[in-house]
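hey
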C-alpha cells in the first residue's frame, strides 16, 4: 500500500512539475497585443478588395517585426482618430498608422524610431481655380480629424482666410474635394500620391511637402515599454536583413 501511495505521490509531483511551467509558458505565448491602425491610408494600410484583408507598408512591417521578435498581435483597422483614442484609453496596446512623430504627441505617446518620412501637401481638383495658397481665400478646406494635416491647415487658415471641415477618413475627405463639397484638402504627400496614381482619385497636388517628419509606432506614454522595445529591436533587425527594403519596394518605394 505504502509503495502504491508513494508511486501515486511521485506521479502527481512529476505531473505538476511538468504542467506548471507549461501553464505559465502557454499563458505568456497566448498574450496577444492589440494593435490599432487606420483603415483607408494607402499604401500604409488599406483593404485588399480581393482578399478582404488589410494590407500595406504598416501591416507588413508589423508582421515582420512580430515574427522577428516572436510576439503575437491582433490588428484592429478602425481609423486614425479611433486608434489614437484606443491607445490613450488603454484599449489598444499600440498603434501603427502612418503616424507622424511630433513633439506635441510625445506628451501623450512614446514613439519608436522613425520608419518612414513624409510631409503634408495641399490638394485640389485638376481643373481648380486655386493655383497657390493665396487663392484659398474664402474657400472650404477638408481635413482629417486629429492629423498633422489638420494642424497645418489650422496654422495657416487665418493668414489665407479659409475655413476647415473635418472628416474621419482620408477616403471621405478626398471625395469631398472630388464632388466639390470642399475646395481643397491637406494630406500626407505619399498617401495622396498613391491615391492619385494607383487609385485614380481625380485630384492634383498643389504644393511642396511641408513639416517633413518620421512616422512612428506608438504606445501610450509610459505604458507597454517592452512592446515598444521589441518593435525597435525588430525594426532594426528587418532593416539589417533587407526585409524592410523589400516591404517598401513592394509598394513602389
Ligand atoms: N501622418 C498623419 C498624422 O500623423 C496622418 C496619419 C493618418 O491619417 N493615418 O497625423
Amino acid at each position: 500500500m505504502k509503495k502504491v501511495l508513494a508511486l501515486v505521490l511521485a506521479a502527481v509531483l512529476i505531473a505538476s512539475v511538468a504542467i506548471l511551467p507549461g501553464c505559465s509558458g502557454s499563458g505568456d505565448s497566448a498574450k496577444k497585443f492589440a494593435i490599432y491602425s487606420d483603415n483607408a491610408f494607402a499604401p500604409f494600410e488599406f483593404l485588399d478588395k480581393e482578399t478582404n484583408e488589410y494590407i500595406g507598408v504598416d501591416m507588413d512591417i508589423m508582421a515582420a517585426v512580430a515574427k522577428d521578435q516572436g510576439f503575437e498581435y491582433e490588428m484592429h483597422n478602425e481609423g486614425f482618430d479611433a486608434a489614437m483614442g484606443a491607445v490613450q484609453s488603454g484599449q489598444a496596446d499600440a498603434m501603427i498608422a502612418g503616424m507622424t512623430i511630433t513633439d506635441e504627441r510625445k506628451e501623450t505617446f512614446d514613439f519608436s524610431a522613425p520608419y518612414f518620412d513624409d510631409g503634408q501637401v495641399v490638394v485640389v481638383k485638376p481643373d481648380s481655380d486655386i493655383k497657390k495658397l493665396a487663392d484659398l481665400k474664402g474657400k472650404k478646406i477638408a481635413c482629417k480629424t486629429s492629423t498633422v494635416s489638420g494642424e497645418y491647415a489650422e496654422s495657416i487658415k487665418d493668414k489665407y482666410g479659409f475655413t476647415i471641415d473635418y472628416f474621419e477618413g482620408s477616403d471621405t475627405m478626398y471625395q469631398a474635394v472630388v464632388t466639390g463639397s470642399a475646395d481643397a484638402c491637406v494630406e500626407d504627400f505619399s498617401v495622396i500620391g498613391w491615391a492619385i496614381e494607383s487609385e485614380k482619385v481625380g485630384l492634383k497636388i498643389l504644393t511642396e511637402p511641408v513639416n517633413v517628419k518620421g512616422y512612428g509606432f506608438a504606445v501610450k506614454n509610459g505604458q507597454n515599454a517592452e512592446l515598444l522595445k521589441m518593435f525597435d529591436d525588430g525594426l532594426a533587425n528587418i532593416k539589417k536583413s533587407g526585409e524592410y527594403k523589400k516591404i517598401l519596394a513592394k509598394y513602389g518605394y
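The chain has two domains: 32-115+216-250, 118-212. The domain at 118-212 is CATH 3.40.190.10 (D-Maltodextrin-Binding Protein; domain 2).
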